Amino acid sequence: MTTLTPTPDRPVRVTAVLDAPLSRWLWLVKWILVLPHVVVLFFLWIAFSLVSVIAFFAILFTERYPRALFDFNVGVLRWSWRVAYYSYGALGTDRYPPFSLGPEPHYPARLDIAYPERLSRGLVLVKWWLLAIPQYIVVGFFLGGWHAGWWGGGLVGVLALIAAVIMAFTEKYPQDLFDLVLGFNRWVLRVAAYAALMTDVYPPFRLDMGGTEPDHQDRIVS
Fold it and tell me: In a designed cystine with 149, which of 45, 76, 87, 187 is the match (CB 3.0 to 4.6 A)?
């Protein structure tokens, strides 16, 4: 898979490849198939919250997010994104998500976040609740809720189900619809990284659609 390297000014990179062909009817039972992931993610997100609290104090006193804690929380977000992509956050693949915190470069859904060398002590006090409120409102509309670290409700879930119905009759996932769903998911993951104190770069109010990041000026890696 080709991705873009995260950079300090664009720290969150979300990419995905639409698999083809996709099963016409597997989406009807994916809610059952992902239950083991939901159970694991429930506990991982408890740990994610605790790690974020520890990171809060670490940033407040040292201006640094401990690397081991950062890598763990990135792993939880990666895991959640893969499950969402497989299930009702996108329905973009029939490949079962791995039980892994790692980058899994061969899975069709990828998430990378640049590690920040320094973070603002002042921003850490306000960004996750005050500054992020407008973003929470937008993301709430997209998701309609957050369920044990994965998502599938709200506008994103509705669009994914529309795509599933279209696939059931045509065997094709409309590309324009896929690009829109990926844009919403990319927005959600940028906000999640910001709210989890993993970056000081405020998420843009911009819908960057498509499976690859739209900024082609950054260095491309395979």
Answer: 45
- Report the phi/psi class of residue 145: left, alpha or beta, with left for phi > 0 and alpha for psi in -120 to 50: left
- Distance from C-alpha of 104 to C-alpha of 17, rounded to nearest angstrom: 13
Please check whether residue 93 is in contact with residue 108, taking contact to mean a CB–CB distance below 8 angstroms. Answer: yes
In the chain, what's the furthest Cα-to-Cα distance? 57
The three-class DSSP label of residue 12 is: strand
Q: Based on the number of CB atoms within 10 Å of its own CB, is 63 exposed (0-12), middle (13-18) or buried (19 or more)?
A: middle
Of 191, 180, 190, give the one whose Cα is nearest residue 156: 180
Please choose, from the candidates 201, 80, 196, 101, the residue with its C-alpha nearest in 3D space to the C-alpha of residue 143. Answer: 80
Q: How far is CA 167 from CA 26, 28, 37, 101, 159, in A?
A: 11, 12, 25, 30, 12
Residues in the chain: 222
* Single-letter amino acid code for the residue at 159: L
Q: pLDDT tens digit string along 20-62?
A: 999 999 999 999 999 999 999 999 999 999 999 999 999 999 9
In this predicted model, what pLDDT tens digit does every residue of 69-126 receive, in sequence order? Answer: 999 999 999 999 999 999 999 999 999 999 999 999 999 999 999 999 999 999 999 9
Give the helix/strand (H/E) hosting 111.
Answer: strand 109-113
Q: What pTM, to 2 d.p., does this model score? A: 0.92
Six-digit token pair at 78?
């990666």
